[in-house]
C-alpha cells in the first residue's frame, strides 16, 4: 500500500469489482475515460480485467484508490504500458465518485503514483493523454508538474463536436 496525504493506493480486491462497474458506467465518468463510443462495461468485463492483472509479471501495476480517512473506494490508477528501453511509462487514472471530484483526491493519488514510478521503478519519463473537455484532470496534471508535449487536434468526438486530446509528459529530472 502506498499512502498519500488524502488517499491510499492499494491492490484491487474482488469485492471492488461491482463498485467499479457502477462507477465506470456513470455517463459523466465514462465520457472522460474512453475515446470510443461510450458503451456499458459489464461485470464480466471487469472480472476478465481483474484476472489479467493478478501477478505483476508484465511490470504493469494497477491500484485501487481509497480515502485514507475511511477507506472509501474512489477509483483507480496505474501504469498502462512501459517502454523499458526508453524508460517511459504511460499512465491513467479515474476518480469515479463524483462527490469527491475537485477536492484534491485525484491530484494526491497522481502524486503517489508518480513517486512510485520514479522512486521504485526507476523510470525517467511518465506520459498520459487527456481530453480537452476534462478540465479538472488537465489542471490536476499541471499541478503535478506535467507539461503539454503535443496536441492531437479535433481528435475526440463528444456530445456533437470534436475536441483536442493533449499528450502530457513529466520527466523525473523536472520534479
From TrEMBL:
InterPro entries: Acyl_CoA_acyltransferase, GNAT_dom. Residues 7-173 form the N-acetyltransferase domain. It comes from the Bacteria. Pfam families: Acetyltransf_3. PANTHER family: GNAT-FAMILY ACETYLTRANSFERASE (PTHR43415:SF3), SPERMIDINE N(1)-ACETYLTRANSFERASE (PTHR43415). This is RimJ/RimL family protein N-acetyltransferase. It comes from Fusibacter tunisiensis.
Amino acid at each position: 500500500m502506498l499512502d498519500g496525504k488524502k488517499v491510499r493506493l492499494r491492490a484491487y480486491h474482488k469485492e471492488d469489482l461491482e463498485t467499479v462497474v457502477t462507477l465506470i458506467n456513470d455517463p459523466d465518468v465514462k465520457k472522460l475515460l474512453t475515446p470510443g463510443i461510450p458503451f456499458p462495461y459489464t461485470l464480466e468485463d471487469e472480472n476478465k480485467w481483474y484476472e489479467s492483472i493478478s501477478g505483476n509479471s508484465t511490470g504493469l501495476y494497477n491500484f485501487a484508490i481509497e480515502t485514507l480517512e475511511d477507506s472509501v473506494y474512489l477509483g483507480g490508477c496505474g501504469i498502462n504500458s512501459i517502454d523499458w528501453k526508453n524508460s517511459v511509462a504511460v499512465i491513467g487514472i479515474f476518480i469515479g465518485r463524483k462527490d469527491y471530484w475537485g477536492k484534491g483526491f485525484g491530484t494526491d493519488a497522481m502524486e503517489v503514483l508518480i513517486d512510485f514510478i520514479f522512486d521504485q521503478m526507476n523510470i525517467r519519463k511518465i506520459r498520459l493523454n487527456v481530453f480537452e473537455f476534462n478540465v479538472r484532470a488537465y489542471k490536476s496534471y499541471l499541478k503535478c508538474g506535467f507539461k503539454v508535449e503535443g496536441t492531437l487536434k479535433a481528435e475526440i468526438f463528444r456530445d456533437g463536436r470534436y475536441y483536442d486530446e493533449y499528450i502530457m509528459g513529466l520527466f523525473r529530472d523536472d520534479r
